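Researcher: We are triaging several targets before committing to wet-lab work. For this one, the compound of interest is flavin-adenine dinucleotide. I'm pasting the protein sequence and the ligand SMILES. What I need is the predicted three-dimensional arrangement of the protein with the ligand bound, expressed as structure tokens, so it can go straight into our comparison scripts without reformatting.
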Amino acid sequence: MKTRETDIFIIGAGPVGLLCAYLAEISGLKTIIIDKSEGPLEVGRADALNARTLQLLEVANLFQDLYPLGLPCNTSSVWEKGKFISRQSSWWNELQGCFHKHFLMLGQAFVEQLLDKKLTAIDAAVIRKTTIEDIQLTAHGCTSTLTNGDIIKSTYLIGADGSRSFVRNHFKIPFEITRPQIIWAVIDAVFETDFPKVPEIIVFQSETSDVAWIPREGEIDRFYIRMDRKDFDMEDALKRINLAMAPHYVKIKKLVWFSQFSVKESVAEHFLFQDRVILAGDACHIHSVNGGQGLNTGLADAFNLIWKLNMIKNHGTNQNLLRTYENERKPVALSVIESSGELVRSTKYSDDGTHAKDYVKIVEKRAGNITGMGIRYSESGCAGTRVYDLTIHKEKKSMRLYSLLEYTKFTLLCFGDYVPAITVPDFVTILQVRPNETQHEYWTKEDYYKNQIVIVRPDAYIEAVAPIGEAESLLKNLVETYVEN
Ligand SMILES: Cc1cc2nc3c(=O)[nH]c(=O)nc-3n(C[C@H](O)[C@H](O)[C@H](O)COP(=O)(O)OP(=O)(O)OC[C@H]3O[C@@H](n4cnc5c(N)ncnc54)[C@H](O)[C@@H]3O)c2cc1C
């Protein structure tokens, strides 16, 4: 029996736990992460990263590893009676301050494997085939007992242990589940078909809209088939696909993954327990896969959470900052339940029998959630919104603003020629961006923030904005909020 101490103990090495561990480690926080599985996911589950996730991955320097592996896709189409009756992407095209105006179709396994490898490389590997027996809260944090008898003492504990969360149940955090009696089959495979294949998400309208085609990375594609019963096999699911695609046919050349899931919807009553235990990902929100928001919402939880723990632990910020995690993320989770719930019900029920068209209209209406770009942490104004990703130049090189942001710090962006005479604390980086080409300095032609000073949080949301001449007082507010509170 060993006793170990750490800043953060993470239970669950799905994508959310892995990302929490990775972001914490790069922020200088010590972690221990366990999982009951033998290794990261190899196939199946989530299939797409949205535009906001792509931006956040860039801030954490993970984008370059993942982007080349996926398939960009921004169009949702409806197929009825042998032809496309609509093909829409306007909600992506209209996004401002965003370079990757599309989903990146890429399996969850790629995300897990990359993070698992990165953690191993920095000597923070997942402890596998290990699970949890007990957690006790102490005056200074948590004492957890593993099933192998080892003890972990941690300042914080993150329950990233999925929809049946041990952590959530252990602390009796209410999680009331709605079951709309909708059951999907999902098939990932290399398919043989005479269908005119395009890299678009296609919803097939027949009697209802019970079949959707999701293009994927490499040679594989995915079909979702609404079965609404549990006792089906793959042949039953394939029959439904062929019915919806008639007169075209589909056959499986090579099966990669076949599964079923019943839609369940819930948001945990609390994401925090006594300021020491934190829930993230499926442990605190579950919903239908429609809109591809499960993985994306969980990853965004991790981005929202870890910089706050970094500020509290490494920079002396008041513990109350952690409460903003629940205040910011719980409304997002509730809105995701609403949007995925509306989407999934529209595949079954439609007043006019136009399920697939209704579906695409809901995608348009709910684009803020589905692209991730509409998520904001304030009612109005610039603060609490995502900072726009601008094209920035330096000498002969062009780059995106997001490639210059660092997850471990706030960034103070000064857009203009006025150079404020300020000294910043070690958790802040200054970036002066000139309005015209200037030797050896960053400059941009884009004028969203012209002559403004913008403080950007580590998770790339705006903390505050003011005219550039007010840099000093803006910085003073930041220090008061995060250090002298
Ligand atoms: C069949 C299926 C299909 C899906 N398809 C999609 C999709 O198309 N698009 C989409 O966005 N989302 C999809 N999802 C949802 C998506 O996979 C989840 O939202 C995402 O995996 C959440 O990540 P997570 O890390 O929070 O939880 P999980 O991925 O569930 O990871 C939890 C981890 O905790 C570990 N664990 C659990 N309990 C313990 C314990 N007591 N001790 C130690 N380890 C433990 C598990 O082994 C697991 O590795 C799908 C889910 C399922 C089940």
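Researcher: Any quick observations?
Model: The mean pLDDT is 93.
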